[in-house]
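Lab notebook page, bench 4
Experiment: in silico fold of construct C2
Operator: M.H.
Input chain length: 393 residues
Purpose: comparison with the prior construct
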Amino acid sequence: MKKTFLNDPKFHKIITFFTIMTAILLSFLLKSCSEHRVNTHKGETPVKSRQRENNKKLTSVGSNEGEQADKNPVPPLKEEDKTERIESPSPLSLPDFDQTEKEIKDTIASSPGDVGLILYDMQWERTISVNPDEIFESASMVKVPVMAEVFLQQQEGKLRLDQTLTLRDDQKAGGAGILKDKPSGTEYSVEELLNLMITQSDNTATDMLIELVGMESVENRMSALGLKNTTLKRKIYDFNAIDEGRDNYTTPEDMYILFKWIYGENHAQGQENPDKPSVGKSPLAAGNPGTGSINILTAENRDKILDILKKQERKDMIPRFLPEGLAVAHKTGGLLGILHDGGIIFPPGRKPYILIIMGKNVSDEEIMKEKYGKISETIYQRTVNNQSPFKTP
């Protein structure tokens, strides 16, 4: 057999060597090109490339920020920064007040008594009312007008909150409170009596304060504030006066006006000067009096009143189904067949709302208290959480 170079082993070794070297060189060139494309885009550095990708993501969701991404690129995140960005809360959306009103009226329709109600939402400046002008025996709700008069007389220099009153036997009233069991001759400051009157609904403390400021003064002041149907004709436990035709009355509208007055113009308008009393027209219903500082609470007294109301110990009606810890500045009231609760609810992250619920001819107090709780829950879920309070099966 004739020997050629194709059969020469040396030739095969040379061919193999060049094949391997060519493969290595091609692999090196391909890897270099690939890295160049990843790390550069029209002359960008790796950091700029990351900014471009972020901008693409923003633009893809159609946000205003994304539309401006080319002009205002997102700054690069530091590798060592592992903290996630927290999205800002979404803006409040307008609740369905028509549905809220329907649910409130449905609950009232199934209640064991006659109900009057006013809801005023300061966030949306919307009102829902049911029988707002209906006249009710005020029961212990009258203690809020008494407290208001005490603070206004203090502002006028007629009394001091730290002055003391001495308990007498003839002032001891039955019903709610601890003072009826205290020894006569015990002294209490006006401020102590105010706290007992509201937080424990102490009837004896109430009668001591009524003596201090005068029934007629309370009535006249409430009239000046625009409360058209609120009367104070008897002490709290004077049932003989009822037999004689003298009683204490009010309406849901009057109590709404009073609580809105307590909350104050500075609060309602979001002013930032808490030390300056509000001057000018109070933010009450149109046509209600309340001009001049004589009938306007100082910021200090307003805050004291709200703090006292927030310490109300009875929580079986308006606060019944509300979140634990939610601030509710309110006052309850009750007699045979009478059941009331009203005040200001302070949800977090928004303006408060005022809710007044009053009932008479109540045939079942326990059911009525639950109904008030459901009304309050409906309002909170519909206007604060913006959802139905009732779970679907």
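Observations: The chain has two domains: 8-67, 97-385. Residues 8-67 form one domain.
Next step: discuss at group meeting.
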